[in-house]
Write the structure tokens for this entry.
Amino acid sequence: MDFWFSEMHTSNVKMSIRVEKQLFSGTSDFQRIDVFDSPESSPNRTNSPTTR
């Protein structure tokens, strides 16, 4: 099963990224903070422009 994180910016714009695992989740006085590992952020990703 794929896990995706999506964030709505406006009613017409949504950003989504595939998530491999959640590294951290916490809250501050002002916001929720989530840190994810994804294929896009992995230094060894197979679709890297430098490995094409």
Remarks:
- The two ends are 27 Å apart (CA to CA).
- The chain has a mean pLDDT of 84.
